[in-house]
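Figure 6 in text form: structure in, sequence out.
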């Protein structure tokens, strides 16, 4: 594709990559605001069908300008899907049940995506069949599969708990009561423009977004550049494609393990820090080691750490949000910052830095330290808030006891 569309000229590849993200970022919150109105099944199915159609269309582009336009449309069509799914999952489960579900959802998609270089290599072997280039076959086949799954999705997608049609009324009531007992927001509150602006004024939502940006940056970097980076380490193009998949398998099990621990012990921040440190270690090995095998092992660690942080931060942000409208705004805002991470990844791994890509690796490393700093600040904020709540309760209890004692003394005097 690079040769056919002349993507190797200047920054064309980076431009085509990065223009996916502006609509992806800007349409996250609007998409989450209307998902209840149209119904999750209807709305998210329409999104999937739309991007599947665009994906098939990308097989037939003739210039890099048209490819860039398709990338822009792809970002617009995909924008609502991820935050919509996060919103739905967090609506069905209690606070300390969500991370395992989010981890399975995200990591299954990530693991499948990890094998996409191998699938791309296999599909590219169709080069010349029906006078269609190998890279075009990749888009045709994967786009067609997307369309098929989107139509299947319509019949299998669960809606929000109060809108579902597959549970009996008493079963739905049981689900809603569990959520109500856990956090008191099973009934969705009315969404207004004033509420949206009010929710956006909560600085912790923006902190979660920045954390999400920091951990998606290495994920996007690996998704876009792992084959190129491995090629720069000395492996052939075919070997680079095949070696791109293995780092995703251990990441799945590592992230699920940390998600299980986090839900079991009802703790988020500490496990995010541990996985952030794993990412930092992996980045250092990949960036600074002189041995290719060690640098390749660093990619395993980087993928494990960043992949585990993503569902951890989604769960942490969902746990500290009460109210359906705020959950809608919060999940969209956090996931939108993931698109910012994609923009950074698309621009800091530059062609002129081949083969080591040290500036990109330095930026990614700095993002991990920013992640740890934000986790620390947010944790201190919540600790102080909880202590203030406890102090307030203690003061109210003391005032109540004093009033009771005073009242008792008055009665005794009488």
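Output sequence:
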């Amino acid at each position: 594709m690079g040769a056919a569309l002349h993507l190797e000229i200047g920054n064309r590849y980076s431009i085509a990559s990065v223009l996916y993200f502006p609509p992806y970022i800007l349409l996250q919150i609007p998409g989450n605001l209307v998902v209840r109105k149209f119904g999750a099944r209807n709305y998210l199915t329409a999104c999937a069908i739309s991007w599947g159609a665009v994906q098939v269309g990308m097989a037939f582009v003739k210039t890099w300008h048209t490819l860039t336009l398709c990338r822009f449309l792809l970002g617009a069509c995909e924008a609502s899907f991820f935050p919509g799914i996060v919103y739905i999952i967090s609506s069905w489960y209690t606070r300390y049940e969500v991370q395992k579900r989010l981890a399975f959802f995200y990591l299954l998609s990530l693991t499948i995506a990890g094998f996409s270089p191998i699938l791309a290599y296999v599909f590219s072997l169709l080069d010349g069949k029906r006078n269609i280039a190998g890279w075009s076959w990749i888009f045709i086949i994967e786009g067609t599969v997307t369309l098929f799954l989107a139509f299947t999705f319509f019949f299998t997608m669960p809606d929000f708990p109060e809108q579902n049609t597959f549970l009996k009324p008493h079963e739905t009531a049981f689900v809603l009561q569990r959520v109500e007992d856990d956090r008191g927001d099973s009934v969705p509150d009315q969404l207004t423009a004033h509420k949206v602006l009010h929710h956006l004024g909560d600085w912790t939502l923006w902190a979660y977004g920045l954390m999400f940006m920091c951990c998606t940056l290495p994920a996007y970097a690996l998704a876009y550049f792992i084959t190129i980076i491995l090629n720069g380490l000395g492996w052939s193009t075919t070997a680079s494609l095949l070696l791109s998949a293995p780092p995703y398998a251990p990441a799945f099990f590592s992230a699920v393990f940390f998600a299980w621990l986090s839900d079991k012990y009802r703790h988020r921040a500490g496990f995010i820090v541990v996985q952030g440190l794993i990412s930092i270690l992996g980045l250092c090995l990949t960036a600074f080691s002189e041995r290719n095998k060690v640098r390749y092992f660093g990619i395993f660690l980087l993928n494990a750490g960043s992949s585990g942080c993503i569902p951890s931060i989604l769960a942490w942000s969902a746990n500290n949000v009460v109210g359906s409208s705020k959950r809608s705004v919060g999940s969209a805002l956090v996931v939108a910052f993931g698109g910012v991470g994609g923009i950074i990844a698309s621009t800091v791994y530059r062609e002129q830095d081949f083969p080591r890509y040290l500036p990109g690796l330095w930026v990614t490393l700095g993002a991990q330290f920013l992640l740890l700093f934000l986790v620390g600040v947010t944790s201190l904020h919540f600790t102080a808030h909880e202590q203030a709540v406890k102090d307030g309760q203690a003061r109210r209890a003391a005032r109540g006891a004093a009033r009771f004692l005073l009242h008792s003394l008055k009665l005794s005097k009488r």
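Caption detail: The CA atoms of residues 3 and 9 lie 10 Å apart.
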